[in-house]
Amino acid sequence: MDYELNLSIEELEKRTHKDYLATKKMLEPDAVEYTSLADGDKEALKYLVKAGDILEKINMQLDNKENLGFKKFLDDEIAKGNRQAELTKILFDAQKGVCALDRETNQIELIKGVHVLPGKGLYPVDLTKEEFHKILIKMIKEGKTDEVKKILNQRSVIERSGDELKATDYIDYFKEDFSKMADYLDKAAKVSTNTDFNEFLHLQAEALRKADPMLDAYADKKWATLQDTPLEFTITRENYADEMTESVIENAELKKLLDENKIEVISKDFLGARIGIVNKKGTEDLLKIKNYLPLIAYNMPYKDEYEQNIKPVNEVILPDTNSQAETKQTMVDVDLVQVNGDVGEYRAGITLAENLPNDDKLSLTIGGGRRNVYHRQIRFISDYEKLQKRLDTLLDKEQHKYYLNEADHWFTIGHENTHSLGPNKGTEALGKYKSIIEENKADMGALAFLDLLVEKGMYTKEQAEQMIVTFAADNFLKSKPTLSQAHRVRTVMQTKYFIENGAIELTADDKIHVNIEKMVPTAKKMLEQIVRIQIDGDFSKAKKYVLDNFIWTDEMEKISHKMKEIDKNLNGRVEAKLAQKLLNE
């Protein structure tokens, strides 16, 4: 199939220039983290990289139905010497798809006439939200509730069937590819040196061969216990990007029918793979906060009104050994070899860490816990001169002493752990605002308990101040995001809220100044509002809360203008030389 390239040579040359396209480098073939591995783990890593490559192919189809065809078209055109295709391929590989937002909220469409869809590649391309709702109402009224449940499930691909819709579990839809992935995982399990890791790989392989959510639950439950393994392999399943499924609760007639028939609405998952080597020193540092999680759980707002993933303990004591056993939360710091699919899409940004499984996953209903994985190569700063220029332009000079890149990592640890705190049921009712509010909660939880953690000895007062100022300075964006960008929307909401409450202000020369003493009390107040909304599960309250706070203020515009002057970066890409070497073996 022929495609018409959408971006001009001039635009492509700009966007692929190193000043506009940031590069995050994964482990190199000669990295000591890799060369010091046992031979069996090196062999296993090869199979895991091959499995991740297959998952990338699968997720590209979930993202946009044109992705694979366009990729082949570009390769064919490049072979003919087409310079425009060559440059387009660089952007395509970076954002892992034909459509993506950049850091300035521009929609980058690599094919003329092909746009991002609310249902991405999971729904028929010609299906509108309005028609989708009408079809579901018709099917429910005709008693076809079982099929509707499958359609509104997080793991199904939807196709037309006459004047109705039918759902196919993605394991069956991509059966051949998932089966090949499973074979690679079994091969890795035969040579990897860690028994627990091998058991997980076998469970995950089984879940890739049969469309049974409970098999995923068993694999997730085992994965969440992994703490002392040489290698890391994760299949990420997160549902931030599906705007079609979550739209159904906004139709009053359809929502009533769904409630009457007890049909749960869960946005669809996009799939990613993370392959890496566990960094023992970094992991030891992460685990220091684990002892404090039950104490933080005790201090969460309205804690008696919901069940938490972390068991709370009395405020005046630290958890003893038995209480720690109830903290179903493992944590690892990982040197990345490759990030595939959803987890590796560099679209305006790329994730620093993940806390999984999410609340909609079955493993949490069968006694499973959660696991935090932190991405070392993503958080590394390569250009400190550029960072200093940014501080000189944006942050009050008197507060430069508080800015520390490592403090961003400490804050991320608090963010990810807060995902395990607070309400873990019923938030699907918040629809398209669910993810925004959950990410908002995670940030505010990371700030709200800093005074408590200083008091208990987890952090020094100086470290807390560094986290506060670094967070506040980094929370300003280059442009106002769209409502589909949950992580960035919550950033705007928070900055507006802190400005409104006097915790952040601009100096006379329009630089960010943080009133440190006001940050934690303000975060506590916002956290209370967030948790109340999650408990109530009221869509209209969630909508009002988000829209009341998602306001691009004059202060944000002033800082945005300065950022654009000193920072040309629009997109990013991942460079994975070790993974490429292993893939070719």
Gist of the model:
Helices cover 49% and strands 13% of the residues. With 585 residues, it is of the alpha+beta class.
Question: Major sheet: size, sense and barrel closure?
Answer: 5 strands, mixed
Q: What is the number of E strands?
A: 13
DSSP helix fraction: 40-55%
Shape estimate: globular
Order the strands across the largest sheet as they lie in space. Answer: 6-7-8-10-9
How far is it from the N-terminal to the C-terminal residue, by CA?
A: 31 Å
Sheet/helix structural class: alpha+beta
- How many helix segments? 26
Mean pLDDT: 94
Using the CA coordinates, give the radius of gyration.
23 Å
Strand content: 5-15%
Q: Uncertain runs with pLDDT below 50, 5 residues or more?
A: 319-325
Layout of helices and strands, plus pairs?
Layout: H1 9-15, E1 21-25, H2 32-35, H3 39-63, H4 67-79, H5 83-95, E2 99-101, E3 107-109, H6 129-141, H7 145-151, E4 156-161, E5 164-169, H8 170-173, H9 175-191, H10 195-209, H11 213-223, E6 231-238, H12 252-260, E7 270-278, H13 280-286, H14 293-298, H15 321-325, E8 329-341, E9 353-356, E10 370-375, H16 376-379, H17 384-394, H18 405-418, H19 434-448, H20 450-456, H21 461-474, H22 486-500, E11 504-506, E12 512-514, H23 516-536, H24 539-549, H25 554-566, E13 571-575, H26 577-583
Parallel strand pairs: 1-13, 8-10
Antiparallel strand pairs: 2-3, 4-5, 6-7, 7-8, 9-10, 11-12
Helix pairs in contact: 1-5, 3-9, 4-5, 6-12, 9-10, 10-11, 17-25, 18-19, 18-21, 19-22, 19-23
